[in-house]
Amino acid sequence: MTIPLDVEPAADQAAGPGDARSGGRSGGMARYALKKLGGAVLSIAMVIVATFFMFRLIPGDPAIAYTRDVPLSPEQLDLLRKQMGLDKPLLEQFLDFVLRTLRFDLGTSYEYKRPVLDLIGERVGPTLLLAGVGLVIAVSLGLWQGTRAAWNHGGRLDRFSTGISLVLWSVPTFWLGLLLLMVFAAGVGPIPGIFPTRGMEGVDAPDGFAYILHVGHHLVLPCLTLVAVVYAQYLLVMRSSLLDEIGQDYVTTARAKGLRDDEVRRRHAVPNALLPTVTLVFMHVGFVVGGAVSVETVYSWPGLGLLFYEAIQGPDFAVMQGTFMVLCAAVIVMNTLADVLYHVLDPRVRST
User: What's the rounded Cα separation, in Å, for the pair 189 and 193?
Assistant: First the structure.
């Protein structure tokens, strides 16, 4: 009996299972991502519904609140309510609100007489600048200090870092901002006048590279306030995660092989300890953008947080609704990205 030379059963059999496993992994990843995406869409839909009813539960008449300093006749108030769409039945108002939101029409500001989406587009840049710079510094500092603290567990550095982080985590953001403002800018501290007291730029802002330095000078105090509150969370999470990894068998094995402590920490313990922290970073991006409301209000930083505060002071319900939905959507999107990224990074999640 002869076997044809062009038949390769071993190669065919070897290729089949590998292809199946690869297809299964990619298919499982796609299903997981679609599941998370569907959950994010559902969450955003719930935010839209909650936004509509939540702001209509505020006591008082929006038309009267908007014109509280201007005496109007009942006929004028009725006309204003009609212009604001408040004369329609609640269900019709809700359907109009949902349809406009799906068209990315967030309404028109009563205060600025401009589309809310345009106002948000102008203010999102300063918020991303403040939150982005603050988050990069907070993550870098928190992870570095958390790693050092856990690796020297029980030492002076560990006790000092943990104590400082717990204090800063418990300090209200607006209180810390006011304190730094008084000490470094308002003229009542020992070193006053070093930094500007408000805004993103002064009236005499220069051009070119000098403008970047000018904005950076205004950014110091708001960024320092945001970093002081946020970095403590990364420090504590990284410290706790690394302490769990230090006691694992693979760390003991790496040390038994004669690797130096720096190599064990850098090549083995820290990469595994970073998994929960990576998730926290992505989850916290949305919360940092939303949590910048207090910082922007204290320093008059022209971002979404200050816009939301000014809308509450108005009150400007269209702007309140629009900024609230944008901030909530940022949190939902970042949480979804965190879930998908964790699924990619951690093989233990992929195997479930």
Answer: 9
